[in-house]
């Protein structure tokens, strides 16, 4: 079945460490997105990419980095510059041709220890 | 930019009752309005959407209505069941182009058996 796979489901980061969250899709979607979800704050856009080798900052890009070397993959790195990284991270993709609704992954919960 | 307000933030109903969640938007150019359901610990899932050329859309027990003049749209769930308990998000965007939706802050629906 087609879909988006996020891994790991749970991730623990020590102070000062960089960590990378994986997002892979087999839907052949061109556009991919990263959102951060905190309780009571809804979904906030971190980065998005509409084509391979191109990506744009969202509303809260500081302390994060991404790459889009393949259409299927859009990994997110949470750097040590992100001072409050504990959150639920969601990856999404979009067809844009058959529908304008997102397909979301199941999320990664990142906790700083 | 677009601004989406969603109400209520929490909604508690008895099984079998109807539930209504309302959203307002500010950008008259927005023309695509999806609704997502997020169960605990999972990613959001698109449950229904509506485009600005339609006033109402139904899918079994759920329906969405749109009032373009007043710039508001609503999700209606009839004959609620405990499995309807989740957080529901509305969004507004311009279909096509860079397509970055603006999300509401979410409504936590609790259906008591």
Brief synopsis:
The complex is a heterodimer of chains A (113) and B (113). With 113 residues, chain A is mainly β.
Gyration radius of chain B, rounded: 14 Å
Share of residues in helices of chain B: under 10%
The major pleated sheet of chain B works out as: 6 strands, mixed
* Span between termini of chain B: 41 Å
Strand content of chain B: over 45%
What count of helical segments of chain A does DSSP give?
A: 0
Helix-and-strand structural type of chain A: mainly beta
Number of strands of chain A: 11
* Oligomerization category of the chains in this entry: heterodimer
The ordered string of helix (H) and strand (E) elements of chain A is EEEEEEEEEEE
> What proportion of the residues of chain A is helical, as a percent range?
under 10%
Structural class of chain B: mainly beta
* Uncertain parts of chain A: none
Head-to-tail CA distance between termini of chain A: 36 Å
Please provide a written account of the structure:
- The complex is a heterodimer of chains A (113) and B (113).
- Chain A is mostly beta strands and 113 residues long.
- Chain A contains no helices and 11 strands.
- In chain A, strand 5 and strand 6 form a beta hairpin.
- Chain A starts with a strand and ends with a strand.
- The termini of chain B are far apart.
- In chain B, a hairpin with a 4-residue loop joins strand 7 and strand 8.
- Chain B is an all-beta fold.
- In chain B, strands 2, 4, 5, 9, 10 and 11 form a 6-stranded mixed beta sheet that branches.
- The chains are: A mainly beta (113), B mainly beta (113).
- The interface between A and B is medium-sized, with 26 and 23 residues.
């Amino acid at each position: 079945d087609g879909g988006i796979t996020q891994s790991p489901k749970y991730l623990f980061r020590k102070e000062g460490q960089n960590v990378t969250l994986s997002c892979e899709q087999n839907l052949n979607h061109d556009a991919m997105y990263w959102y951060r979800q905190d309780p009571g704050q809804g979904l906030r856009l971190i980065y998005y990419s509409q084509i391979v080798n191109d990506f744009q900052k969202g509303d809260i890009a500081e302390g994060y980095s991404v790459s889009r070397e393949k259409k299927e993959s859009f990994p997110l790195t949470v750097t040590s510059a992100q001072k409050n990284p504990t959150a639920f991270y969601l990856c999404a993709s979009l067809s844009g041709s058959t529908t304008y609704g997102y397909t979301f992954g199941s999320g990664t919960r990142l906790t700083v220890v | 930019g677009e601004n989406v307000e969603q109400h209520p933030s929490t909604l508690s109903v008895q099984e079998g009752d109807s539930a209504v969640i309302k959203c307002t938007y500010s950008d008259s150019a927005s023309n695509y309005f999806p609704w997502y359901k997020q169960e605990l610990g999972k990613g959001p899932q698109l449950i229904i959407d509506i485009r600005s050329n339609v006033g109402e859309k139904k899918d079994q027990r759920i329906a969405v209505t749109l009032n373009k003049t007043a710039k508001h749209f609503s999700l209606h769930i009839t004959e609620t069941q405990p499995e309807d308990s989740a957080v529901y998000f509305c969004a507004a965007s311009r279909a096509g182009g860079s397509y970055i939706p603006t999300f509401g802050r979410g409504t936590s629906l609790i259906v008591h058996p």
